[in-house]
Amino acid sequence: MPDRAPPPQSLLNSLPQRSELQRRDPAPVHLWHPELSGEMDMRIARDGTWYHEGDPIKRLALAQLFSTILRLDEDGRYYLVTPVERWGIQVDDAPFVATGLTVSGQGEQQQLTFTTNLEDSIPLDADHPLRVELDPQTGEPSPYLRVRANLDALISRTVFYELVDLAVETEVADQLRTGVWSGGQFFPMDGAE
Known about the structure:
Layout: E1 38-44, E2 50-52, E3 55-56, H1 60-67, E4 70-72, E5 78-81, E6 86-91, E7 96-104, E8 111-116, E9 121-123, E10 130-134, E11 141-148, E12 151-155, H2 157-166, E13 168-172, E14 175-182, E15 185-188
Parallel strand pairs: 1-6, 7-12
Antiparallel strand pairs: 1-2, 2-3, 4-5, 5-6, 7-8, 8-9, 10-11, 11-12, 13-14, 14-15
Domain DUF1285: 27-94, 95-189
InterPro entries: DUF1285, DUF1285_beta_roll_sf, DUF1285_C, DUF1285_N
Organism: Halopseudomonas oceani
């Protein structure tokens, strides 16, 4: 009997499986390069809420699962990617939102760790830096934390106020900068170049 080709995979059945008690690492989406399958009616709002066909995804586990196959490509578009499919989705700002902050240690030895809306724990360190963009018209800051690859979390206003309370002035390249210490590194947050 000849070998049969495996049935084609769909986006949903090719998602990594996980139980409610066990978080999975993100899939190796950087290794997958399928052709564009089309546009999916899915959107991540600025507040981190995932929507499908206009309705919010209420099951946190489902949004967490989709987040494991999320990728931002060089064209500036976000995609849900599996080995056989790549679907374009809309992201209003950043795909994650940092909603919590814990601080351990103090001074230059402190470690800041953020929690995202999808319950990921992200340390502020060299692999997960902080950046603050200033709106050119209003000067209002938009702070971001690198979550993985080139995916960021917008830091919520409440958490940003907590960061501001931790801010210190430090000289960087002969310039006095305002920022925070974490993981033995100084992260400016004053929006200056």
